[in-house]
Amino acid sequence: MRSVWIMAGVTFREAARRKILWTALIAGALLLAIFAIALRVQVHEFQSRAMSPFVRYQVESGMLMIGLYTCDLLAVVLTILTSLDTLAGEISSGTIAAIATKPMARWQILGGKFLGFAGMSAAYVCLTFGGAVAVAYAATGVLPVHPARGVLLIVFECLEALSVTLLLGTRFSSLTSGVLALGLQGVAFMGGWLEQVSGFSQSADIVTLGVASSLIMPGESLWRRAAYEMQTPLAGSLSFSPFANVSIPSGTALVYAAVYLTVVIAAAVWHFGRRDL
Amino acid sequence: MDSVSPTSEIAVETRGLSKTFGSKVAVRDLSLAVGRGEIFGFLGPNGAGKSTSIKMLLGLVRPSGGEGFVLGAPISDVAVRRRIGFLPEDFRFYDWLTARELVTLHGRLCGMTTARLAVRAPDVIDLVGLSPHLDRRVRGFSKGMLQRLGLAQALVHEPDLVFLDEPTSGLDPMGRRLVRDILRDQRARGATIFLNSHLLSEIEVTCDRVVFIKDGAVVAGHDLRADQRGELRVVVRTGNLSGHAVEGLARWTTSVRVEPEALIMTVSSPAAIPDAVRHLVASDVDIFEVVPERVPLEELFVRIMGEDPGL
Q1: Whether complex ipTM tops 0.85
Q2: Domain B232-294 has what CATH class?
């Protein structure tokens, strides 16, 4: 395992030096600033007129979820963009030759890279998620119901995106991997919305399409589960949004996501282990 | 080339190793054996399959057929790589690392301790002449400096077997001499060097033995250590040269060429020279100078590979 941790360390440092990470951090900081301003304006507006505490809580809780959803999207995109070059790019440039001839198995290289990027993504999620919660609490006093569960599910979603990106990188060029990984993320996004729509439309075909999309890429269902965990049932039941409780991913969906992650990593290890470098 | 069992005396051995990419045959039935402590040259024109062969020996490319052993272990063995160093052609790595960090990282991946590397990394960087740049980021390094650093990472763990793919391609004459000295030092400590280079003059002064590879197959081998007692080219400055005298040389020579000012003959051993000269004198040829010289590797290369058909 020593080699895995050495690779994880150098991968984390490599990831931390990428401009895209700093761009995402700046984007995260901007998001928090806008979020703080929006909350302040909203609170001020609430104070200027009589507002039922129930409605006020609904709106403030909804705004917190908007902030957290943006953090989630940023984290997933950051994970894909920072990691898409790590295998494909190093294979095409020849950098991998100096690493893959060291006394370690290919799975250890992949494992180290996975852990390095996972650490970076987790750190980014904690930072932006913590920032959004702190800003919302300072402005409104509203907190997520189960913040730890929410963070873990968002990190889980990032790991799904990371594993898919690494798998694609074992086979395709950086550019192709990036397009495919983002495309799959789009499928997941659509699947999430279709499942939400199905809650209203009662159409069996829409349900099937939504479930099929979520099976192809289960990332978005993890977000919806996170949203469910972070809101009170009442707050989540009254809106049509990416954080509504209209169609809550079940425990089975979480198990499927875990199996999906395992299978994708195993496929990446298998293909990376067999391919010529 | 005869196959040899993977014994402790053999550092590298292949038996019928081959690689095909789709319908293209990159390496065909490669069989060779490299003894421990040798500096071995692997020669061939572009696209002959040299790099693919090295990559198979290092586990980077999966063979389509045959088998190979390095230091007595199958080429798929990961643990044996602890004793192997490799300088890839056009070495590159994360350029935000300093020279010291880069060599330390590679040493750690080879199982060395941080304490040992604190001493060894500066030493090996000094060995390749990069001491003044020890803590400088690799980003600003020239191609030659990167090549030297690549050599440092290949040698940091004092491997028993070192594969070098074009180690002097980006180096100036001083750098080439440095690499030559380093390779000799490595051999002196018992390491085996497997060298792939286009620079035949470098190979000639560095290697003990070479093989020539063409279209993915070994076509010839040549022991450079045996050259002192082996085939020689003899340039004889003559006058009054007759056709009869030239024809009579066939008994002691493998080839004869007549040029305006000289007779150039190739003999299979130095012992043939006095007899050949006696024959010329007896044939009333005036002899002004006799200069024996080794057959240049480049000439041997062209003779074995044939003329360049062009790309």
Answers
A1: no
A2: alpha beta
